[in-house]
Amino acid sequence: MSENALPKGYEPADIESRWRKHWRENKTFTPNIDDPALAGAPAYSIVIPPPNITGTLHVGHALNLTIQDILCRHARQLGKQVLWVPGTDHAGIATQNVVERQLAKEGKTRHDLGRDEFIKRVWQWREEYGNFILSQIDAMGASVDWTRERFTLDEGLSRAVREVFVQLYNEGLIYKGDYIINWCVRCHTALADDEVEHAARKSHIWKIRYPFEDGSGEVVVATTRPETMLADTAVCVHPEDERYQSIIGKRVRLPLAGRLIPIIADSYVDREFGTGALKVTPSHDHNDWSLGHKHNLEFMSVIDDAGNMNSLAGERYAGLSCEQARKLVVADLEEQGLLESCSDHENNVGLCYRCKSVVEPHVSTQWFVAVKTLAERARAAMPDETQIFPASWLKTYYNWMDNIRDWCISRQIWWGHRIPAWTCAACSDMIVAVDAPSSCPKCGKTDLRQEDFVLDTWFSSALWPFSTLGWPDKTKELERFYPTSVLVTGFDILFFWVARMMMMGLHFMGKVPFHHVYIHALVRDADGKKMSKSTGNVIDPLKMIEVYGTDSFRFTLAAFAAMGRDIRLSEDRIEGYRHFVNKIWNAARFALMNLEERPPAPIDLALVEGDQHRWILHRLEELKLAQKTALAEYRFNDAAQSIYIFLWNQLCDWYLELIKPEMQQDGQRRETARFVLWTVLRETILLLHPLMPFVTAEIWQALPGQAGEDVATKLFPAERPGCIDPAAADRMEMVQEAISAVRTIRAELNIAPSLRLNAVIRPANAEAGEVLKAQATVLTALARLESLTIDPEAVAPKVSASQVTRGNEIIVPLTGAVDFKAELARLEKEMGKLEKEFAMMSGKLQNANYVSRAPADVVERDKARVEELGQAMEKLKVLQNRFKDAVDSQN
Hints:
Structural class: alpha/beta
């Protein structure tokens, strides 16, 4: 084949665009469920974690997609029928916020439009902008089945949501009631417990005097939120706290409000916190809510849904924000002599996971799922029915399931799945149905009002593994691909999504939704810091793809995706793997220059002669096993590193050089080298394909015999047990080490690469001598030697350099090869630089102030540098002494 079969340089943009189009138009990744030839093939399925329609591709998405695509492409190679379902999430709160901001620029609110017109406006936005994230998923080379794309608000999934809601309601697992929930004062909606993020904030602890009713004294209460005291309905102490035994049952007068409230006892109280006396505000604290019900206390709310004080807070405080009210309450307490003290305190504050506003505990009427029984079944399913990787996350999963509270599923927004419940205006009967009723079944009236609330976005996402496959209908997809094989996700949605899918899958399908859960790590910057726009250290995947190509970016992510360990990503590393792509491209071009348009005549590779061929074939068999094992165990970094070492070092740096002499000959030796090269390159491209889909697709169709073929449809290369030959591999590596020894001497002594050297090898034993003699031509060519002597009795010249490897001593005479005086001068200059830096670094480390104040990682880096400098100086001293001896011998 002509060397022009592949262009000189690899330009990813056009190639990637062409292959993405090819795969879409040919429906390459759409499994044919009705194909009888595939009836016995194992099924393999993944449902993509649906990104928000408001989202854009970030490095976390990129890592997630890369891992899923590697798994899917590899599963196809193993002969499995693979379905990877793509889709997006309607992202209720986030999407509504986006459209409301657009309306605000027009001077309007959603209420100006009304519900129906606002929903139309959101759908218009979705049609225009909501699919951007899908095009970005496509840019990553994701081998999803685009014919089965789903959206959490599409007709089929909406029906599934209603079916689930109605069934759970009829089973008594969904109910409506007043409860204390997490309320976002910015988004004006309820949030589930796991939608609240917690952040440390500097605050204070105030100690407040609550006078006894009879004026006989006071009890001091500690609080971090003095503004909520206006809604206190009790003071609580521990029943075994000796300090307060005598006051249990008494009443105190609530400061500023004047109301009388009881002193109660409960073992919930932490005697070590504050004063050991707790103010109880049932309507503004989740734990106090439970205490209020347990002790039959009054429930009183003084904060409205906008986060401001209401009329029940009193005329002086009504209308103030919580922050304003806090300052005024503290000032008033101080003025009245009721503030005992104020001290600094770091407090965990709940924030909305969407807008980061402070979340208020708030009592309101909401819809809930009673999850206790669902959670028990989902807990028991791990790890026997579903395994989690890494297993360290199992403890976290158990802890959450053991402490789970009922799930608040209603949201006070308009964009989303509207709750399928209607109230009859005539008789107040509640109708919960899949389809909208035309009349009340109880009284026959037609004036029915549907709930304004919509369902939590995660409610529809919890059904994703089976709703996307056609449930509640009994589809072929559902029968074939449920349960799914693996879920790949980030740790941050382990509770939002993974746990809820487990609960819903088991309840409605009777089976776990996935056999494996792989939790990938966080992608950080090169210094280990979390990426954020404010820090300015964000790496944009789309920009990296544009500059370096998708394959380089994907391979970088895979190469550092060690299980359970965060990835430190830098642009330099991505650029480094772009060089790897170029290396592969150039290796393929070299192969094509030495191959004809037709595949070489086949030979039995198990019988092939020549240690260089048997070595590379042996390493190829090892690579096949390593790839299969690593991907089966989700060790993506090991899979990447194994093939990197094979391609860069073993194939490109060694094998291509080893066979160049044979390629220039005629006859069987050339034909053997051509067939082995064709086989090794072909099978290596197959092994690399899941990690680098585009460059491998382009090279594959250029190989002899593969024209017009798609590597994405090819099976994993078959194993060849007859090619496993560790003895031949060991012999070849002995030769490589001898060549490397000469190269090391050349590099250390600054000998020009063009200068051919003489070399003497004293083999460790007779067997080693025979091996080295058999490869004398290779040794001479690759070490760039003028002459080579292999003799156990050889005498080393006085002025020479040597290296010992496997007991074989490789000796290079230096007379005529090195200008000893010039090299001595160079080494003395280099030694001076090293000594200067060594003294400076050592001085820093001897400075106690520096060591105690500098970051630990910086100090460790300095220590490592001092050790490195010491070793470099020792090597230079050896060279200096050798050159001094050489100069002396010449004088």
